[in-house]
């Protein structure tokens, strides 16, 4: 059974990792896909072709998620090309890890801009077509680090905790319009972002994870599919952890 037939989904940061897995999962379920990337031109082209080969409409947009004007332009372009936006996944993000003693103001600003301001930027834009349709699902990628904190990740943790407060507020603002807004909080997922953790052995990390392994991007994509489709139609303002039990 296809769960997103003829829906239009916009996924930010889909040239790699979790965003790419979400785009593919949504396409498998019949959604037409608009997605963004920052610099991975070739990977974005390859994804566009892969999605089109799955029988859905697909287009990649080079768009800096941290730039408000770019988000405004992106939403307008997507509505023009696809007609509307039913689902928005704010996935684009970066990490710049440093102990607070060494963390620079520039690193703090970069992380806040890419991870938190980006969610404000695009949520503000996709609300309009969703309000017109009186329906929509917004899914924001936070992190277990935004819930628990982590030494060396104060900027990243603050940006991801901010996403949770933002999402819960927006859910209360736009629930009456039948627009839902939820958070996914992954633990350690196997992508470029966590590649460095494997230096010196992944086993030491596995000890902290009840399920004893890192998660896969496809497993996060399953959660995103649930939040995007009608199976979660009475859920809003919630944080779903997909972390192998790390948050328990
Ligand atoms: P990733 O493999 O590093 O991929 C990041 C993606 O975001 C890429 O497609 C990148 O585009 C894009 N991107 C980065 N900055 C951008 C910007 N300013 N504008 C537009 N696109 C931008 O990351 P990931 O591991 O898949 O993580 C995806 C999301 O899940 C992030 O928000 C991350 O914080 C969150 N998360 C990840 C983990 C984990 O363990 N991996 C855990 C918890 C939460 P380019 O390819 O063009 O650079």
Question: Explain this structure to me?
Answer:
It is a single chain. With 248 residues, this protein is α/β, with parallel strands linked by helices. The protein has one domain: NAD(P)-binding Rossmann-like Domain (Rossmann fold, 3-Layer(aba) Sandwich). 44% of the residues lie in helices and 15% in strands. The protein has eight helices and seven strands, in the order βαβαβαβαβααβααβ. It has a seven-stranded parallel sheet, with helices on both faces. Helix 1 packs across helix 8, helix 3 packs parallel to helix 4 and helix 4 runs parallel beside helix 6. The two termini are 33 Å apart. The model has no long low-confidence stretch (mean pLDDT 97). The structure holds NADP nicotinamide-adenine-dinucleotide phosphate. The site of NADP nicotinamide-adenine-dinucleotide phosphate has 30 residues, from helix 1 and strand 2.
Topology:
Layout: E1 8-11, H1 17-28, E2 32-37, H2 41-52, E3 58-62, H3 68-82, E4 87-90, H4 105-133, E5 136-141, H5 144-148, H6 154-174, E6 179-186, H7 203-206, H8 217-228, E7 239-242
Parallel strand pairs: 1-2, 1-4, 2-3, 4-5, 5-6, 6-7
NADP nicotinamide-adenine-dinucleotide phosphate binds next to helix 1 and strand 2.
By CATH, the superfamily comes out as: NAD(P)-binding Rossmann-like Domain
Cofactors and ligands? NADP nicotinamide-adenine-dinucleotide phosphate
The third-level CATH topology is Rossmann fold
Low-pLDDT parts are none
Number-wise, the strands total 7
Strand order in the sheet with the most strands = 3-2-1-4-5-6-7
Mean pLDDT: 97
**N-to-C span:** 33 Å
Global structural class: alpha/beta
Q: What would the principal axes of the Cα set say about the shape?
A: globular
Largest sheet: 7 strands, parallel
- Tally of individual domains: 1
- CATH architecture group name: 3-Layer(aba) Sandwich
Order of helices and strands: EHEHEHEHEHHEHHE
Radius of gyration: 17 Å
Q: Percent of residues in beta strands?
A: 5-15%
Q: Number of DSSP helices? A: 8
What is the CATH level 1 assignment? Alpha Beta
């Amino acid at each position: 059974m296809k769960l997103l037939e003829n829906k239009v989904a916009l996924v930010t940061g889909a040239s790699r990792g979790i965003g790419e897995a979400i785009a593919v999962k949504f396409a498998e379920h019949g959604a037409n896909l608009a997605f963004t990337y920052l610099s991975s031109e070739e990977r974005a082209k390859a994804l566009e072709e892969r999605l089109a080969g799955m029988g859905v409409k697909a287009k990649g947009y080079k768009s800096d998620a941290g730039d408000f004007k770019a988000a405004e332009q992106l939403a307008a372009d997507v509505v023009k090309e696809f007609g509307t936006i039913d689902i928005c996944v704010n996935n684009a993000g970066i990490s710049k890890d440093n102990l607070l003693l060494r963390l620079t103001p520039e690193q703090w600003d970069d992380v806040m801009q890419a991870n938190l301001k980006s969610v404000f930027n695009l949520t503000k834009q996709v609300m309009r077509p969703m309000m017109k349709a009186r329906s929509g699902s917004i899914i924001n990628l936070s992190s277990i680090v935004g819930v628990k904190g982590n030494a060396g990740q104060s900027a990243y943790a603050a940006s991801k905790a901010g996403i949770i407060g933002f999402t819960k507020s927006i859910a209360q603002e736009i629930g009456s319009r039948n627009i839902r807004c939820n958070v996914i909080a992954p633990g350690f997922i196997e992508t470029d972002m966590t590649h460095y953790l494997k230096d010196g052995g992944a086993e030491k990390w596995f000890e902290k994870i009840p399920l004893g392994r890192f998660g896969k991007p496809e497993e996060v994509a399953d959660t995103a599919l649930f939040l995007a489709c009608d199976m979660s139609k009475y859920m809003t303002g919630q944080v779903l952890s997909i972390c192998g039990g790390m948050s328990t």
